[in-house]
Amino acid sequence: MSRSAHPAGPRHADVLPEGHYSAPPTDLNVLDHKVWAQTVGRGEDGVVTVGGVPVTRLAEEFGTPAYIMDEADFRARARAWRTAFGSDADVFYAGKAFLSRAVVRWLEEEGLNLDVCSGGELATALSAGMAPERIAFHGNNKSVAEITRAVEAGVGRIVLDSFQEIARVAHIAQSLGKRQKVQIRITVGVEAHTHEFIATAHEDQKFGIPLAGGQAAEAVRRALHLDGLELIGIHSHIGSQIFDMSGFEVAAHRVVGLLKDIRDEHGVELPEIDLGGGLGIAYTSDDDPREPHEIAKALGEIVGRECEAARLRTPRISVEPGRAVVGPTAFTLYEVGTVKPLEGLRTYVSVDGGMSDNIRTALYDAEYSVALVSRASDAEPMLVRVVGKHCESGDIVVKDAFLPADLAPGDLIAVPATGAYCRSMASNYNHVLRPPVVAVKDGEARVIVRRETEEDLLRLDVG
Ligand SMILES: Cc1ncc(COP(=O)(O)O)c(C=O)c1O
Ligand SMILES: N[C@@H](CCCC[NH3+])C(=O)O
């Protein structure tokens, strides 16, 4: 995710501080569709529209800050994954990226399944009418209550993450008189090229059972002999926001290797493998994401080739994209509150949200871009840091970016590519109310997750 510092042109060369900014774009009014949702555009009056609706109308009707989601774009991306993987594979959307009942319905209509990783996500899916057999249940520490609910509901699979969980799920299923379909999540020992907090396939982290030292093989041995379990496959998820395909390829190779060992030891050919999510998206114009059909082709080829060499029946593949489906489909709309130029440094632009609606910059040093969306401007670019309203100097939304020098309080600015892991990781820090999610399509806008109110906040405070 790193970018190198560029000389920023004569106007800035003598005043720019150390940083990781690119040169200012030649025209700040242009919106790059690498990072903006597909139906976003700038009208003749300079106001940005999405799904045919001007952002000024959205701000008036729904307030700011707000996450604005392009429903047509979400559906198109979901469909692109479905089409790329075809009928021999399953696509499980990872609900942790962003989940709401409307999203569950879109997924069902577009033919995607759903990965949930908590009782809350499971409850959301079930309450929206998702067929339980299309749900995969994840997590490294599912509670007994969560497992019981999932087994009772009849989820399509539970992904087992530890030896204790193998025994726990078997016991719960058996006591409910059921045989639960399960996969075992293994750690393939790949160092994914991403931020260390979101890499999950190296050995020294909490997820999965290591392939190393025969541990995964031992987990399979146990699962195959427990009456409450039907072992249907092996799962691997190497991390998130990954551009380099080689990690996925190594993972696929090692998972197929384990299938072969299982066949050789037990005479059983497991019918499925899941290769997780993790495909990166463009947060800035410097990022070059891979397309679903590229990953489908690469994974299909490697699994097919290796299974043929091992004389294994090719298992059904599944994948779990989250960010790559929903990330690019939304932007966060903010109103500018104050504009504070710091001589020789940069201009601090304070917005009406911050780290409570987007923690990713503080947590992962993530990079974002930003644009003035309530009007066009021909003013010179100025180097800005977009910050929130929280009592924290690390409350940064966009670390280094350029906005027009005539930016003023009351202007609307928007940060694109905030569909994934922003609303789902939002907090009430400083008792700030979480923003709504507004879905826009064909000239219509509707709230799919409403803005939190002070009543919502106080309802929980029962002391
Ligand atoms: C098991 C599992 N599957 C899928 C995902 C989705 O990842 P991403 O949003 O990067 O596609 C995650 C999160 O990293 C995960 O932990
Ligand atoms: N929440 C992370 C990714 C973790 C994905 C879940 N395993 C992000 O915002 O990038």
Describe this structure in words.
There is one protein chain. The protein contains 13 helices and 21 strands. Strands 4, 14, 15, 16, 17, 18, 19, 20 and 21 form a nine-stranded mixed β-sheet that branches. An eight-stranded parallel β-barrel has the order 5-6-7-8-9-11-12-13, surrounded by seven helices. A three-stranded antiparallel β-sheet has the order 1-2-3. 29% of the residues lie in helices and 22% in strands. The protein folds into two domains: 10-70 and 328-459, Lyase, Ornithine Decarboxylase, Chain A, domain 1 (Beta Barrel), CATH 2.40.37; 138-321, Alanine racemase (TIM Barrel), CATH 3.20.20.10. Pyridoxal-5'-phosphate binds at residues 94, 96-97, 115, 138, 237, 240, 276-279, 320-324, 420.
